[in-house]
Amino acid sequence: MVARRRKRPARELDDRIPSPPGYAAIPIKFSEKQQACHYLYVRAHGVRQGTKSIWPQKRTLFVLNVPPYCTEESLSRLLSFCGLVQSVELQEKPDLAEGPKESRSKFFHPKPVPGFQVAYVVFQKPSGVSAALALKGPLLVSTESHPVKTGIHKWISDYADSMPDPEALRVEVDTFMEAYDQKIAEVEAPQGRPSTASPVMVTRRGWGRRPVLPWTEAASLWVLERERRKCAQKELLNFYTWQHRESKMEPQLCKKFEEDKQRVELLRAQRKFRPY
Amino acid sequence: MGPAPAGEQLCGAIVEPEVMEPALEGTGKERKKASSRKRTLAEPPAKGLLQPVKLSRAELYKEPTNEELNHLRETEILFHSSLLRLQVEELLKEVRLSEKKKDRIDAFLREVNQRVVRVPSVPETELTDQAWLPAGVRVPLHQVPYAVKGCFCFLPPAQVTVVGSYLLGTCIRPDINVDVALTMPREILQDKDGLNQRYFRKRALYLAHLAHHLAQDPLFGSVCFSYTNGCHLKPSLLLRPRGKDERLVTVRLHPCPPPDFFRPCRLLPTKNNVRSAWYRGQSPAGDGSPEPPTPHYNTWVLQDTALESHLQLLSTMLGSAQGLKDGVALLKVWLRQRELDKGQGGFTGFLVSMLVVFLVSTRKIHTTMSGYQVLRSVLQFLATTDLTVNGISLCLSSDPSLPALADFHQAFSVVFLDSSGHLNLCADVTASTYHQVQYEARLSMTLLDSRADDGFHLLLMTPKPMIRAFDHVLHLHPLSRLQAACHRLKLWPELQDNGGDYVSAALGPLTTLLEQGLGTRLNLLAHSRPPVPEVSWAGSRVPRDTKDIQDPPKHKDSGTLTLGLLLRPEGLTSVLELGPEADQPEAAKFRQFWGFRSELRRFQDGAIREAVVWEAASMSQKRLIPHQVVTHLLALHTDIPETCVHYVGGPLDALIQGLKETSSTGEEALAVAVCCYDDLSRLLWGLEGLPLTVSAVQGAHPVLRYTEVFPPTPVRPASSFYEPLQERSSLLPRLDKPCPAYVEPMTVVCHLEGSGQWPQDAEAVQRVRAAFQLRLAELLTQQHGLQCRATATHTDVLKDGFVFRIRMAYQREPQILKEVQSPEGMISLRDTPASLHLERDTRQLPLLTSALHGLQQQHPAFSGVARLAKRWVRAQLLGEGFTDESLDLVAAALFLHPEPFTPPSSPQVGFLRFLYLVSTFDWKNNPLIVNLNNELTVEEQVEMRSGFLAARAQLPVMVIVTPQDRKHSVWTQDGPSAQILQQLVVLAAEALPMLEKQLMDPRGPGDIRTVFRPPLDIYDVLIRLSPRHIPRHRQAVDSPAASFCRGLLSQPGPSSLMPVLGYDPPQLYLRQLRVGPKQLNDPGEGTSSTKGHMVMSRGEELVMVPNVEAILEDFAVLGEGLVQTVEARSERWTV
What we know:
The complex is a heterodimer. Chain A has helices spanning about 1-15, 70-80, 125-135, 150-160, 165-190, 215-235, 240-250, 250-270; strands at about 25-30, 40-45, 60-65, 85-90, 115-125, 140. Chain A is of the alpha+beta class. Chain A has a six-stranded mixed sheet with strand order 4-5-3-2-1-6, covered by helices on one side. Among the domains of chain B are: about 100-260, Beta Polymerase, domain 2 (2-Layer Sandwich), CATH 3.30.460; about 465-530 and about 550-570 and about 620-650, Alpha-Beta Plaits; about 575-615, no CATH class; about 665-1010, no CATH class; about 1020-1080 and about 1090-1130, no CATH class. Helices cover about 40% and strands about 15% of the residues of chain B. In chain B, a hairpin with a 4-residue loop joins strand 22 and strand 23 (about 795-800). The longest helix of chain B has 26 residues, at about 835-860. Chains A and B meet through helix 1, strand 2, helix 4, helix 5 and helix 6 of A and helix 6, helix 13, helix 28, strand 26 and helix 36 of B. Chain B: This is Nucleolar protein 6.
């Protein structure tokens, strides 16, 4: 099967590499040494009317099937032949809402191990997109001049990177907490401080936020339960004859018996009663 | 046939409504019948899965019918629960003989009867003149000494009678035996035939002639000899029908003397019937001293005379009571599961039937009782009565001429007299067999009383083979050594009594010797009963070679004698055998018992005593002290050399031993690490300067619960081997060197005292925790000079060569993560993946760790069992599917719920039971309840089971419930998948019999690692890695002779930099690989299915196929430097 497939891409390279409708295929390899290629499926980014997208129309290239060793830098380098690249964003899944995030803290959100990804490549000019669609390839991710680390090299450098600088961490924590404190203070402040613009209602407790319990689900459930208990106290038990009769019967036993029968039936089906 | 008509009446009495055969395929039909009543249940359980029962209100409150009421009342009175009743009924259906088969057996018996009566007679000759026997016919008896007086002639039997369980209807499938007694005509026998084995010689000749004639008959598929209850003086002839019924039945022919031929007073246990002059060719030493009594010989003669009276007694007592018969059948199953009934001197079904009769006659059992109640009463009786001390008797008469019970106690170890008062039914049962029966009965009684849900299964359906029931096992092989032992122990009278069977003669003294020597280390010593040999009389008809006819088996042919030791863990810790003070008179006895190992020692309290000290430093060596004791005592007292004692106690220890030390299985190394952790927690408690003080320090790592397969060793890195990173005071691995040693930090969770100052926002809590981690690292370095490294989530601390990873925890954080605000502003708590994960790591994991740590203190073998189990699962390449914790819990279940066994005291037996549990547990329909610290009550467990059924679809494939985790089974949430679990079950089912066979092989277990090697042929792609970059290369099942230097010093070096932590290239590689293929298998929606795929035109349309070739090359690219080759087994690809 493998042997059969090996021939086929070679033949198909001559005319046109098959691709999903609407996409163009660009072969991509890790380096010269590899024989088989992966295929990037690319398309100009476009959305239906009315859908919001943070990616600029016309200038954005949507890339599917980016191999795991392909980084943002190398993709940017590979596509720079088609035109100046403004930004490259690799994602797990196609997602329009999330844009290039404000850089998340590398201490608190370590990058997950990448698999195959999708990419949004934004060129500076729309011509870049059309040039990229016509790209023949095969592209090489790792070359002499720009080697990409994999295997042992990568793991050792990852290990070195995983050791954070305690000072940098401290600084980040401090800045975050300052911002946080400020935010909390802002939320609480408007009610607390009288402003000259609006009149202040003076109450017995003085002005300010009244301490109230937060409205939680547990609390509301508790209220419901209390209501139910009240109702149950009022209900008449053992009043009618049938109630009296039923109170003497034990439906649980009946149910258990049926369960037992089912269990035995199953064991019998599995031939579990043959002792040896 | 004699009482055959009566027998047929008996058979008629137990006509059963159910017929066996149709019941097998008839489940569907029965269902249809039942469906009118229980409509909701009528659908068959889907794919063997139990469905929660839903009954409508009308059905729940339906008036019970009369029939149901009767049934329920019966259940209430006679059984434990309705489930038990149903199960018992099913079991009885399975083991009972069907009417159809009975008819076939009856027909066969009639044929046998006709043929036996027609065997031609032979003129009278001297006993020693056996020339009349046709050529090639061997007498199935050792005629030693050969010369004996008397004459023999063959005459057809005077009477052919069916005796035994077949007529009573208490025989159980499979292996149906029908005993037929052939009464020899009086003319064959002469006076004084009871003497000097004359009767037995005649009996054997009688059978030999019979066999010769019957073997030529085409009716029989096989004709061979066996021995009644293994007694080698009493051969019996086994006949099996030819053709498809060959497996159906075995007819055993027992010749017996005419009634009242032997006078019982000549056969009392105090009488001698084998003269020394004849047997040994000399009169007993010192003239005038009386001949030694031959109680066993006498009993064997008596047994033949009592066959019919026993049958009559049994049929009058059991005949009309179906409950008693059921009880006997259940008891037989019970005995058989425990391997107690088979072999020489077994506790046979006949004995149990007689015991039931005894209990009926003493009114402990009533004839209206159900089978279950009979079983219970008999077990209760066995558990509480010691027949080795207080014998019982069925004899009611108080005739003064009858022998006293004390006489029997003197001659036999177990005493149970029959109704004549002369015959001890338990004559062949050894004391240790009876003690084993008693022990099992006691265990079963506690099990029945404990109201366990599946008591039935544990009691009657779980086999208890010796290797799985006993902690250690030892084989004596070859058995011919026992002959010398008999002489050494001066057992000549016993040999004379047993007719030269030195195995039986030596067994009793041997077990007593070992029991005395092992003393407090031992709970129970049991011996295997030598199997009853079957001597082939060739299966085919005439003409046949003389080769087919075998000589009677010699005593040494009975293979091996296997002894099982059930150890007492508390006794195992001591290396000292304390004797009496030197000036006491007992000291001489002690010295004599222990021989040269006994030494005079002065103790700290000033006493000078005799003592024996065994060499054992580690836990595993201490577990094997019984080995030293056994070999020493056997060599000293019985001349059995060490080479004949094959002790199977620790062959599996090799798999959990460290590389360099072969003397320990790692318990000590783990204890050192735990000690270091204790020191660290003390430091943390006393730490000054943290804004909040430490309120709790909890371990959360397998090392800290003694279940890490390879215990950590202190790291002393050689600085030249690493790239130092001075500003972080850490070491880095170097490219040009082999991968450094793997150091896994041990996780410790550190809780802080409560405070209202914490922010109530998840992100902010993270930052505050990070600040705590930084502060902790600073303080530990300042105050205690420890090397620390802080990150946002943890602080690594190097202490005495061990690395700990301290995680700060804020107890409200999971709750903060759970909070969801609805649009109306209501705050509700919803589980999120992050909150569950955090809760698992900081709350449940420490609880589990401390619970299992406690378990290890109770059961010292826990560590070994859990580690062997994990080692095996991981060696089978299935480790990734199972979390550490889930396997630890399965191992813990073996200790907390050992029924029907007792908690294992050695890793070997624990591991075998692990395999058994894994291969037989029904994960689909049952949760594995692990009752840690005994926190769950019986009611709670029942509730859990029903809750489990209702929620089955939402739960993972493998569900383990603990008191801390009652609903979710957190440790198996993320795996294993159904396929992986199935694979494990299959592997365990294959490994178990293989390993048991290896361990039971007296020639030594062979290569014990066989079951640990994984099958590789099921995989599509094999990736071979370079050993240079595998830090744990030496931990392979087949440890390589040499590996690479891993940069460790043997002495503490000057470097105090943080070693390389958790750097394991194969693991990192696997993590990368796992992301890829997972996406390949994604069914994918929309565009995501392109991942790793390529488009191909197949015919007209375009299809997406995985780009296999490129992916295989990716495997090599991603693991550059580590991967040697990627082998694709291309023929297996079917994409």
